[in-house]
């Protein structure tokens, strides 16, 4: 699950261990990453990670993941992969799309709330902004009952500066597409102030032509994103697309 190319990108971003770390020699970072991906991809509890796989215990993998996330390793990986995709001409900055997707949260947590689409069961929501090809630029997790429109500007402003091309790193798409859940004149004005053309359907009117096709691309991105839960903010999706572009 962690080939040499992916490991070469991730390894330099991980925080180093102290030279004189007390206790037994820790499980290698690469094996822990394999264990992390195994747990998240198969949607099993950490304690059910089979020791015979050689990835360490589930508790070890969970602690390593928390340590890496606290250090911002996956955010830096996401930015590096976006730069590689941008350099290869694989990012479509002519338009971006915002959307939200509900996920069930059986154990609750800080970013959970009653889901309006799942009989008020506890859940969360992923809010996503992606480019015109479905590449994730920013993902935000909130409680399931948070309205999509409230996250519009947070998503736009959360796009990291993407290098890879001559000139200043890019952070803004030319236009932003959204369905009726993002209908807000105040947000349209705020997008125009950011030099982004709002292409957002209005409540009570048919959806704007072209939104349905792009939302299909977004649904595919959500399906991949949910495979790995909160991991890497779409970094693995970006890596897959980069490999495909290079092949």
UniProtKB/TrEMBL annotation:
<dbReference type="InterPro" id="IPR002559">
    <property type="entry name" value="Transposase_11"/>
</dbReference>
<protein>
    <submittedName>
        <fullName>IS5 family transposase</fullName>
    </submittedName>
</protein>
<feature type="region of interest" description="Disordered">
    <location>
        <begin position="160"/>
        <end position="185"/>
    </location>
</feature>
<feature type="domain" description="Insertion element IS402-like">
    <location>
        <begin position="3"/>
        <end position="78"/>
    </location>
</feature>
<dbReference type="InterPro" id="IPR025161">
    <property type="entry name" value="IS402-like_dom"/>
</dbReference>
<feature type="domain" description="Transposase IS4-like">
    <location>
        <begin position="96"/>
        <end position="233"/>
    </location>
</feature>
<dbReference type="Pfam" id="PF01609">
    <property type="entry name" value="DDE_Tnp_1"/>
</dbReference>
<dbReference type="Pfam" id="PF13340">
    <property type="entry name" value="DUF4096"/>
</dbReference>
């Amino acid at each position: 699950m962690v080939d040499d190319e992916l490991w070469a990108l991730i390894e330099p971003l991980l925080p180093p261990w102290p030279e004189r770390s007390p206790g037994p020699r820790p499980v290698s970072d690469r094996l822990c990453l394999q264990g992390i991906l195994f747990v998240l991809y198969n949607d099993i509890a950490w304690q059910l990670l089979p020791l015979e796989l050689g990835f360490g215990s589930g508790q070890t993998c969970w602690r390593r993941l928390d340590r890496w996330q606290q250090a911002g390793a996956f955010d830096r990986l996401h930015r590096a992969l976006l730069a590689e995709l941008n350099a290869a001409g694989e990012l479509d900055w002519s338009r971006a799309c915002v959307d939200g997707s509900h996920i069930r949260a059986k154990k609750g947590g800080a970013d959970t709330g009653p889901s309006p689409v799942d009989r008020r069961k506890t859940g969360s929501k992923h809010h996503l902004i992606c480019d015109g090809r479905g590449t994730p630029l920013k993902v935000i997790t909130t409680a399931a009952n948070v309205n999509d429109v409230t996250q519009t500007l947070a998503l736009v402003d959360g796009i990291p500066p993407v290098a890879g091309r001559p000139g200043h790193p890019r952070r803004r798409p030319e236009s932003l597409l959204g369905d009726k859940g993002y209908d807000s004149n105040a947000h349209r004005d705020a997008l125009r102030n950011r030099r982004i053309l709002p292409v957002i359907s209005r409540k009570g009117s048919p959806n704007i032509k072209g939104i349905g096709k792009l939302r299909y691309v977004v649904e595919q991105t959500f399906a991949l994103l949910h495979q790995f839960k909160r991991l890497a903010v779409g970094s693995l999706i970006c890596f897959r697309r980069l490999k495909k572009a290079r092949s």
